[in-house]
Amino acid sequence: MSDLANIRRHRRLRMKPRLRDMVRETALSPDDFIYPLFAVPGSGVRTEIGSMPGVFNLSVDRLAAEVEPAVALGIPAVLLFGIPETKDEVGSGAYDPNGIVQRAIRELKRQFPDLIVIADCCLCEYTSHGHCGMVRDGVILNDESVELLVRAAVTQAEAGADMIAPSDMFDGRVAAIRAALDQRGLTQLPILSYAAKYASCFYGPFREAAQSAPAFGDRRSHQMDPPNVREALREIETDIAEGADIIMVKPALAYLDVIRAAHERFNVPLAAYNVSGEYSMVKAVAKLGWMDGERAMMEILTAIKRAGADLILTYHAVEAARLLSA
Fold first, then answer.
1. Which residues of the chain carry a pLDDT beneath 50?
2. Is 39 helix (H, G, I), strand (E, B) or coil?
3. What residues are annotated to the active site?
4. For the chain, what is the radius of gyration of the CA atoms?
5. What is the dihedral of CA 120, 124, 126, 130, to 10 degrees?
6. What residues contact 99, with CB distance under 8 A and at least 6 apart?
7. Residue 14 within any structural domain of the chain
8. What global pTM score does this model have?
9. Domain that holds residue 51
């Protein structure tokens, strides 16, 4: 017993729930969450996505009912994706002033003026080939695609978006969008850049939700190679220099080291996207009874926050906020 008399007893601060609460180093809050939503054509549509239980494709008239509980729980922001009625090779639905996301923005801002409505700015949901930009002779074009993304960003901003989130990973798009917004007097509108977006298999369920799987090839020429970290920091540094106000790492769970590196290096708000595959894995193993789904969800979200994310985009947002508010 004498050998134990002078040991450091770390367990003392873990013996009671309230003590654990008092010394907790990382705290999640509904304020941390951004809730992604999928807007689709039609009316009265609320169709569950098969690979994402609890997530729905929603017509514009059903968005408010989906958002209301999130607002009541204190979730401050949503991220809008859109699936157009028709697709073409140049993704024209993305920059149609009356496109699906533009209509969704107007409706949500009408019903929830204080809600932060973020517009995902990309072409993949709108192109017939499923790629993020224009394609010529099998090559995904950079500069021509950026021109179309700028058009999309402007129409989203003019519809009332509170923030533009370019997710394409083409070079120069943040600078081009910033210049276009500023030229129209929208100097106060922030940009949330998907600055380090990896070419990941964890986007699979999203591709079903957004109907955006590439018809050929892949996105590895513009999305990042998963083994690279220093490259991610270069990408982030470039986007900040071009005018990004918030930077994002995507996916989150398999890239916690990238989140940590970005947090330590850059003094700007940092977001991380807890993507569809990460969400669906939790739902699948919970359904099989192999793991406590709620505990897994909260542990993953806490890990993302602990790694250094200030904001977490997650399909778990409402479910997690309910637990935090209980």
1. none
2. strand
3. 197, 250
4. 21
5. -160
6. 82, 84, 93, 155
7. no
8. 0.94
9. 26-325
Query: Measured between alpha carbons, how far is 298 from 301 in angstroms, rounded to an integer?
Result: 5
Helix 293-307 vs helix 276-287: angle between axes, to the nearest 10 degrees? 150
Residue 107 identity = E
Q: Dump pLDDT digits (tens) for 104-160.
A: 999 999 999 999 999 999 988 888 776 777 788 888 888 999 999 999 999 999 999
How many domains would you assign to the chain? 1
Give the CATH number of the domain where residue 187 resides: 3.20.20.70
Residue 155 lies in a domain: yes
DSSP string, 57-94: EEEHHHHHHHHHHHHHTT--EEEEEE--SS-BTT-GGG
Question: How far out from the chain centre does Cα 185 lie?
Answer: 26
Percentages helix, strand, coil for the chain, rounded to the nearest 5? Answer: 45, 20, 35
Say if residue 284 is exposed, middle or buried (CB neighbours under 10 Å; 0-12, 13-18, 19+). Answer: middle
How many residues in the chain? Answer: 326
Residue 165: strand pairing partners: 120
